[in-house]
Amino acid sequence: MSVHIIYYKDGAKHMRPVNDETEYRLVRDTEHNRRSDKHHMVQMNYSCLPNADGTLKGATRMSRSVGMDIDFDPKAADYEQRMKSVPEMVMGKKDELGLLMLERSANKGYHIAFRRKPELSQEENLRWASQLLGVQYDKGAKDITRVFFTPPCEKLLFVDKELFDNSEMVNTEVAHVKEKNTEAEKAKNTDSAEQSDSSLFTLRSSLSSSLPSSLSYLGIPYADIIRKWWAMYNDSQEPVRSNRNTLTFELAVNLRHICGFDRQLLDSIIPCYDGFPEAEKLACIDSALSEKRTQMPKRLKDVLLALRQERITGADGEQAETDGIDEALAQDELFYYNSLPRMPQGVKDSIDAVGPALALPVLTAICPAIGMLATGVKVDVHGKMNSLNLISYIAGDFASGKGSIDPVVEEWTQEVKAMDKMYQQQEEEWRARKRAAKNKKEQPEEPKLPVRCLTLNNTVANLAERLANTNGQHAFSFTPEADTVAQKWRSAMSDFSVMLRQAYDGTSYEREARSAEAVNVHIDRLLWNVVMCGTPDALYRVVTNYTDGFQSRIAIARTPDNTFTPLKENLYVLTERQRERIRQIAHLLPLMQGEVVLPKLEAKGREWLEQVRLETMKNDDKVKARQRFRICPTTMRMMTCLMLCRVAAQLIDRHGLAGAETRLKQQPGLWKELIVKQQQPSFLAAFDVLADYQIDNALHFFRDRIEAAFSSKDYSGQATTERTKRGRNDSIFERLDTTFSFEQALQHSIAVKGSNTSRNAVQQMLKNWRKQGLVSFEPNNSFRKTY
């Protein structure tokens, strides 16, 4: 018999056996499992044994038990009656069936496990049990590797202790251990029975693969890390009976990042504090492993940095051994990069040109450029068509590698800039003619040329005029120094913020002026993608308001902390081959035009939104909960950009560049057919990576400022009962009776403001008060205070 818990390691499903009923019930009743929806509950398998490497996928060894899923159609007229009859019917044939487990499923039916009839196949066993019980089994769950989402114990109706007999698992694994022994090892171990017993003991105690030989992380002993953890976060006190569950869970949630998310290793390095039962400790570890994976938590980073400082100060003048800690922190910077699926041509070349450490920053930088190139593409986001409008900021300290992103962005926009140079040359010729004819009656007419790559070192009027002349195509701005924006737009930062907000939303933009010489702009849909690079300090000079929605519209990336990184030869440069591959994709993107609906991408976005909503509800994190609303459509637009590149790469692979261009021109809808097919789970996994990365960075830079802004008394959204006094009109208001006439208001105004107060000024003051709801006009031509 067997029951195995499913867990993830390196992105693959692994299996570990459950030792006894106590552990079985503890795992089912963890806090995480109780509060999860069906698809986030713990998964179990009853029908197979794992592969030699512990993985589930492709397993062929059947266990001595069979798991069966019984579902009923909830729309059927007799649904309720049949659901009520199942427990009594199954328990009535318990012995004949060889029943091992019966539970109510999380949805609309039941799960059972029963003794396998070895002479029958898996499907024949299911058919036999189905005929015996008179119920239909789920034909979609007939494979031995099928897992069952397992609800808490309140839905467990029956379990037999025989289910936890793992002898078949142990015997198989012992045989596997024996097979892997070399001839030299066999010669040294003359007593084979003693060797088998030792292997058996190791397998039973660890519940999975054998223990690693070294209990350290990159040369840092785990014992030192745990010692420093309790010193920093529990006054050097180890957990006791009253807090051991909570503290062990917190320790495991942090340590999992430097233990490879390995259950066995966590079990080995975390002690059973204050008489902690092994099963309860394992339940805490399982709960920690089932939590969402993130970058290394800040508290664990602080522990590693404290250990680093400890080694330096204790070096007695010698070179401190900190390489392991520095490597640990450097590896964590690659967390999001390691989680990315394989990227398409052009995108992969961009990443290769800057290196893994800058993979996410360069992705954040090139997606707005890709969206600008695919200017005719619209994607359905939550039921509304969106152009690929994107604004991004790459933040990093000086000398952190931001400069290596510049040539990559230049390459993506190279073809558009070549056209812009032609238009700019025509403008120069017009300026020369205008200078030559400055004293003539007839002046040469100014050309309206669609220059699309716009500098941010510009005035509001000039930039607005440029944006109006792009012929309905996206404009693009890139600045390697965000201080250009902070200095040039210092007195008009609100105008810049409004323009970018409207550019993100793709709404209309109007600019009126009375002068005939001034610029008048009427843009139906403002299409403008912007990328800025700069220091965090410059970011705070660009984003100065944290309640108007500008901050939430920016996709923020940050370069890794290379403060203590030794100087190395730069292995990452933009090669000519990479340039050519980027140009090929950039050349095809403008040929894709039209609207597309991507249902699987939409479902992925909604799933991520719900996951963050549930996560933030646990700790009432309103800032993170609000950030998700705009990060989701931003990520959907970025994913669409990446999938368009996959389509272009696919066409180039099949037909070459010229053939791909011909196909796209002759079949305008071809790209739509191909992009729908790109919604594969392996590639859609990039959505979580990009969305989590953005929300982590937004909170890193802005959480404190957002919380302070929304809690400030100056925030207009705060409900206040007192009106702030701002000037002499408030003094006049206080002097007036509850009911007053215009003449009385005039007299008090003269008393406060002086004898030169006009009747028009008093009329305007009363008009403002009425608009503000401070006074009302009565039928007898008098005024009454309402505030």
Distance between the ends: 78 Å
State mean pLDDT (0 to 100 scale).
Answer: 83
Question: What is the helix fraction of residues, given as a range?
Answer: 40-55%
Low-confidence stretches: 173-214, 315-319, 718-722
Please report the total strand number as a whole number: 22
Backbone structural class: alpha+beta
Largest sheet: 4 strands, antiparallel
Tally of alpha and pi helices: 31
Strand order of the largest sheet: 2-1-3-7
Strand content: 5-15%
Shape estimate = globular
| Spatial extent as radius of gyration | 34 Å
Characterise the protein shown here:
It is a single chain. This protein is an alpha+beta fold. Helices cover 50% and strands 12% of the residues. The protein has 31 helices and 22 strands. The strands form 7 sheets. The protein has a 4-stranded antiparallel β-sheet, with no helix packed on it. It has a 4-stranded antiparallel β-sheet with strand order 4-6-5-8. A hairpin with a 5-residue loop joins strand 21 and strand 22 (783-785).
